[in-house]
UniProtKB/TrEMBL annotation:
CDD domains assigned to the protein according to its UniProt record, in alphabetical order: Radical_SAM
Organism: Candidatus Limadaptatus stercorigallinarum
SUPFAM superfamilies: Radical SAM enzymes
Residue ranges of every copy of the Putative radical SAM N-terminal domain listed in the record: 63-202
Listed InterPro entries: Aldolase_TIM, DUF512, Put_radical_SAM-like_N, rSAM_sf
Name under which the protein is recorded: DUF512 domain-containing protein
Domain DUF512: 212-407
């Protein structure tokens, strides 16, 4: 039972009021807001509420596209992770970061709502049936290996032996799934990787597989002795996954990081289909290039005459530098790219999204610049705080130049810079 804190127009028309205690919908006890979201799409059902200490039944009749817009006071507290993954990134975090980053969650509800990856090792049979009943689809599943023994070695939780069977049940009942394999050399690469991709292709409902290299920081005291892939191993993995992707017609992809590690150019835009694994770093470079090209094609030539620094990670720096030659020519700026070495996590971490404020202020010389540009994925979502708990405003003061935050997808990079210097919307 949860108290209703807000009701929309159609919810009020159906008889719901703020302050009501919501007991059940369609005869099913209300657990959280996901139950309300599911019944938003239903046209006829009964709802049990308690108002003024008395239980009442509401006979709801509405169109499927009429949202009740019910909000509850019941907070969705994340289910805790029960695994001890050999590559767990939280276990490798240094001190001094935002408190929320140290929380280990593994919650199917947040997988549905926000696309976070889960292992399903803490999922009960009742929760499996709830996923099916509420049609929570798609889900994002961390599989890592199709073989039970290999997967158990990686996640260190015997409950993972139920994963493939559970995924089959979900798929057979219409639940779609995106999956990821975090690759640890010598454990789940090579033949095991092929076995995993082929196995996942045979599970109904599995739409995609992202193949991602393991990320290891410099803070691994007392943790498993594992390593990252060499350039040769990375190239072999790329070739292996590309061959399977060709065989299955667009099903599995390596993240961009694999191409960088292998010394290979990123693939073209069309290779990534619907970009369904973009949040896993699959196709980020291609998306960025395409978005910048589109912006360049729609904006007039300008001569801003400004010097701009672009701050990114080591991986993307040479690719960004190449594309900025076109940007410089189009809008008349002089660009300098700063590929920031990650001393906070360790120099094996090379992606832009894990660059911290401390490393930026220690390495970026902004003297002579008119502004500096950072991608939004360096900051907390819907916020302005870096991973090391320093605000964008503090970095701006330390650098001594304005900081321009742009989408990491490149969709507004050129326009935001032009708008900033011209003082008008472009």
């Amino acid at each position: 039972m949860a108290r209703i804190t807000s009701v929309g127009k159609y919810g009020r028309k159906a008889g719901f009021r703020e302050g009501d205690e919501l007991v059940s919908l369609g005869g099913v006890p209300v657990g959280d807001v996901l139950d309300c979201l599911y019944f938003d799409g239903e046209e006829r059902f009964d709802a049990e509420i308690v108002r003024g200490g008395k239980r009442r039944t509401l006979h709801v009749r509405k169109h499927a596209d009429e949202s009740l817009e019910i909000e509850l006071d019941a907070e969705m507290r994340p289910m805790r992770c029960l695994n001890k993954c050999v590559f767990c990134f939280v276990d490798q975090l240094p001190k001094g970061m935002r408190d929320t980053l140290y929380v280990k969650d593994d919650d199917y509800r947040f997988s549905f709502v926000s696309g976070s990856y889960v292992t399903l090792t803490n999922l009960s049979d009742e929760e499996t049936e709830r996923i099916i009943r509420l049609r929570l689809s798609p889900l994002y599943i961390s599989v890592h290996a199709y073989s039970d023994d290999v997967r158990k070695r990686l996640v260190a939780n015997p409950a993972t032996v139920k994963l493939i069977e559970r995924m089959r049940r979900l798929g057979e009942h219409g639940i779609k799934m995106h999956t990821q394999l975090v690759i640890v050399p010598g454990i789940n690469d090579g033949e095991e990787l092929t076995r995993s991709i082929r196995g996942l292709h045979g599970i109904p409902g599995v739409l995609t597989v992202a193949v991602v290299p393991v990320g290891l920081t410099a803070h691994r005291e007392g943790l498993a002795d594992i390593r990252t892939a060499t350039a040769e191993e990375s190239a072999a993995t790329v070739a292996q996954v590309e061959a399977l992707n060709s065989e299955f017609g667009g099903f599995c992809w390596c993240s961009d990081e694999y191409y960088v590690k292998a010394g290979l150019p990123p693939r073209e835009y069309a290779y990534y289909g619907e970009f369904e694994q973009i949040e896993n770093g699959v196709g980020l470079f291609a998306e960025f290039y395409d978005n910048v090209d589109f912006e360049l094609s729609t904006l007039p030539d300008m001569h801003l005459g400004k010097k701009v620094g672009f701050i990114t990670g080591v991986d993307f720096a040479p690719f960004l530098r190449k594309k900025l030659e076109e940007v410089d020519a189009k809008i008349g700026i002089s660009s300098t790219v700063f590929g920031v070495v990650n001393n906070f996590f360790g120099q094996t971490i090379t992606v832009a999204g894990l660059v911290t404020a401390g490393d930026i202020t220690a390495q970026v010389d902004a003297s002579g610049l008119d502004a500096a540009v950072i991608p939004d994925n360096m900051l907390k979502e819907f916020g302005d705080v870096f991973l090391d708990n320093v605000t964008a405003a503090e970095v701006e003061r330390a650098l001594g130049v304005p900081l321009i935050v742009v989408s990491h997808s490149g969709s507004d990079l050129v326009g935001r810079i032009a708008e900033f210097f011209r003082g008008e919307d472009i």
